[in-house]
């Protein structure tokens, strides 16, 4: 890939470029911050049930922290590219890498989870399994590629739709972000029908059929390497690896800190795991021990070590990215940056094993996943059968159900696929609380007036 051609300030919606005090990529960041899709992340589960008195991360705070890490990664790699490839770069390209790559990665990190439904991964599973479990009734209404989108529903693909799709009555191009930012969140740049386990850029899929033309525009403008045209498969954009690394760094470490605050993980276990990782990458452990000795508050001790761990993982990710930079540009890297490091670092392996055993399988986490799955499944079942009926086939209960769908999600003149995507837009965009409240109301568990 040509470093002068993999970024652009072209936006969805084809609006003319306007002059502003901010760069186009800073404007991306700001547009995301002020979007309703981003604000709704404050009430979407990260791992643990949203708390009462103990603060844990939700999708919004997680995304803000990922964005902070991503800006560091992007800024340092931008300096590396600007310095080491200066003879290949145009003046504009050199300025972009030196001053704006950090903004692109920060913006992409900020919106990398906006396509995730309520209740974490169980929400994704509920949407996909709704179609699997109703295959006999539904599959004939869609072509093979559309059906693959539905039975493999994926938050990454949904993010492209949330950010770029024109809803009923709204402006063209969604948030109208630059193609550079959108390309940076495309971890799996292929159609659903092309997904294949064991291949990093095809492990899941990156766009729905409804957004395929938009994604092909993004791919063309940022010069993604095409692997296949039928079905469409592209190699990852070089910036994706930095967004993925920022996300991996944060969730690997922050989930442990949250578990400690909730009393699920002891201070001793958390401290030992974090310290072993820091020790594996630092020769100055005496200074760290001395600092810990001066801190008596348990939460503060863990916060201090968490910062040290994140710094160590940022440095290691940068080192790995630089080491494999040519392979990344060719689209041939086969493992995530942090996975490559994890394979050689036993301390990070231990954190992962501990997290799976003590955190991700904790009773409270399993309970919210089960509850969330059922809530999301039942909401889909309330709307989809009704929306797929023609007007003259709808009974009074179908019409009442559809009155609960906001107008921007109703595509009455569209195909069955477009109608179903409208329902998925509505349900997947819900916060945990809103989904739960609506579920309780339509099931008759809560009856009363809501203004």
Automatic annotation (TrEMBL):
List the keywords (alphabetical). Hydrolase
The residue ranges of the HD domain are 59-252
Which region ranges are annotated with the description Disordered? Answer: 1-22
> SUPFAM superfamilies, alphabetically?
HD-domain/PDEase-like
The residue ranges flagged as biased composition, category Polar residues, are 1-18
Keyword Hydrolase on this protein? yes
Q: Please, one GO biological process term? A: dGTP catabolic process
One of the entry's Gene Ontology molecular-function terms is: dGTPase activity
- Which PANTHER family does this entry report, sorted A to Z? DEOXYGUANOSINETRIPHOSPHATE TRIPHOSPHOHYDROLASE, DEOXYNUCLEOSIDE TRIPHOSPHATE TRIPHOSPHOHYDROLASE
Could you tell me what this protein is called?
Answer: Deoxyguanosinetriphosphate triphosphohydrolase
The scientific name of the source species is: Chryseobacterium soli
